[in-house]
Each structure stands twice: as C-alpha cells, then as structure tokens.
Amino acid sequence: MKIIEDALREGRSRLSEYESKLILASYGLPVTAEILASTPGELRQAAAQIGYPLVIKACSADMAHKTEKGLIRLDIRNDAEALTAFDEIVAQMNGAAKTVLVQQMIRGQRELVIGLTRDPQFGPCVMFGLGGIFTEVLNDTVFRVAPLEKHDALDMMQEIKTHKILEALRGLEAVNREILADMLITVGRIGLEHESIKEIDINPLIISKGQPVAVDALVVLA
Predict the structure, then answer these.
(1) Rounded mean pLDDT of 192-208?
(2) What is the pTM of this model?
C-alpha cells in the first residue's frame, strides 16, 4: 500500500491520524468524514464541505496525545470559531507541519476501542474493549489471534466485563454487532495482509445511534 511504502521510505515508524484512517477506510471500515487544511482558506472550504459542527485537530505523524497537549477543539459551530481554533492549534505545533484535520463531529455516549498488536509468537492479535481516555486505567479488553471468524468477534463482545454497554439502555439503541464484528475481522485481515504494520489503535470508536464510527486512529509500523 502506497501510504505505508512512502512512510517507510521516509523512515517513519507511525502514520498520521489522517493516513491511518485512509487505510481503514480503504478496507471499508466506518471513519469520520475529514479533510486536511493548511491555510485559513482551505479550512473554510473544508468546513463548507463537511458542515458544522466540526472537530479541528493537529495532524502530524509526530503528534501523539493530542488531547493532553491541547491540540484538539470540539464542537466548532461557525467560521469564526474554526479560524480561532486553527490559529491556536497551529501556534502550538512547534515546528511540525502546520496542518490541521477538519473532522465531522460525531456525538455518542459510548466509546469502544479496537486494536491490533503483532505478537512475536502468535502474529497479529486483535483487541476489543472499552475505549476512550480511560482505556488503560479500566483495562477492560480481550484479545484473539487473527484471522477471526464471525463467532470469534461476537464472543469477544460478550467477554468484556462491560458487555452490557453494547445493549439498548437508557434510551440508547443497541450497538450494531454485525458492523462491529466485521470491523474486528477486518482489522485482523489488515494485520495479516501487511506485515509492516506493527500496531493499530482505533480509539475512540464512538457509538452514534447504534453505529460504530472510528473517530481517532493510529497505525504504527515495524
């Protein structure tokens, strides 16, 4: 895949969020609508194309932990807010390419995580669990060795301690488990088909009206 080949040729060990989600989207995984912007003019064009409300983030392969570094602005409602967010984020990017990601705002009260890690013994292993900023603290995740069958993916959903979060509750629709199962199977397939991919981290995977959408993603290369 050209994105991966180019990154390796440049000596990079990780892809940007935008590049990572291009790979996921090429496999049919649901990701946010988003456009890169490097100037105020490009920002306005992206906002007009996607529509408000928006999320604006710093976008660089060198940028990790964007939330902690104040490099994300949520629920942007108009051009004035967008331009202010653009100026503030670019000012904090410290020499990195001054590019932001203009992204569709996805609303949802449930956050999951899907990932892939390449184990030295077992090869690509798929991870599923509770996502968001508390993923590492709560540690409610399960793993399967790729390739996955549909029953493997469905079993993973039942094995997390908080599996009831996938059901209809408090006015929220049940999560579409068919789509979720397809995503888990596909992430395993990506790992099998691309040996240079060491890790995939899709977090958060927000559930919006029962549908999972990858809001942030990172691909790490071997």
Answers:
(1) 97
(2) 0.93
